[in-house]
Amino acid sequence: MTTTTLKKISQVLGLSISTVSRALKNHPDISENTKKKVIELADTLEYEPNANAINLRTSKSKVFGLIVPHISNFFYDSFISAVEEESRLHGYTLMILQSGDDPVIETENLKLCRQNRVMGLFVCITPETKDIKPFLRLSEFNTPVIFFDKVPSEISCNKVCVADTEAAMIAAEKIIQKNKKNVLAIFGNKDISITQKRLQAFESVFIKKANTVRLSISYAHSSDEAKNISKQYCQSKSKPDTIFCMSDEILTGVIKATQELHLQIPGDVAVIAISNGFFPKLFSPEITYVETSGYKLGKSAFSRMLACMADNTSTEELIQESVLVEGGSI
Fold this sequence. Notes:
Layout: H1 6-13, H2 17-24, H3 32-44, H4 51-58, E1 63-68, H5 74-89, E2 93-98, H6 103-115, E3 120-123, H7 133-136, E4 145-148, E5 159-162, H8 164-177, E6 182-187, H9 193-209, E7 214-219, H10 223-234, E8 242-245, H11 248-260, E9 270-275, E10 288-291, H12 294-310, E11 317-320, E12 323-325
Parallel strand pairs: 1-2, 1-3, 3-4, 4-5, 5-11, 6-7, 6-8, 8-9, 9-10
Antiparallel strand pairs: 10-12
């Protein structure tokens, strides 16, 4: 199929290319009659502007970049959904890239974003990312960067996070309210800020309000690790009466362990999690969880992106509020 160009339209109508171009842009110097003829022919011939040529002229695209660890993760899937919806509503498209939590792939993805002259970038950094200067250099080209979920811990930059401290405190207070005495708390990668914040907040509540509770802390990098840790503790002499899950990934491993050991929830062991909200509703009874919504976070991140595009000099950290959603697991 032959691509329709400005030259083709100009030849058919006997107009200059510049006149056709200005007519399509609704330029005031072009008569309404000429605009009508040009637009009607462009529609008939299904003319589409050359996006690459526009990008080269303006040094910008109408594309946002988004770098995420794994698209298959439901939290990130819902985050992407929210950002894509907002991008479409505002006339942008979204280029989605996976890092697989690999800093080398993350660097390659950043290069792709630069090459495609993205208008802005949303990025959830890997646990191994120590230097974020390559991301911040985008600001030199007036390209805002919004870090989300896993964010740089100390550097001043635009961050949009769930309320990690608040979420962990809500879960701890629920456990204490239910008068639990032997708690296994499984957290994720201890080197990332999200784990550190949740762990510190979770422990602080027990220190202040229930320091006689036996609290066992463990770390899991995958669902399978969470399953194995849960089985080990639940088969010990002092098995926990409650298991706290820092994430959906950990929750799925814990539930699999209870199923393999034929444990009843909450009769044999209670379970509470910090979750995006999808997985807790798959089980019976439904799991009590503290909501950390990827969808809501995506909406907040996009709002922050628009604000940065209007004023690229400011930095801000936005926190998405957490709420307790009651199930029947504790």
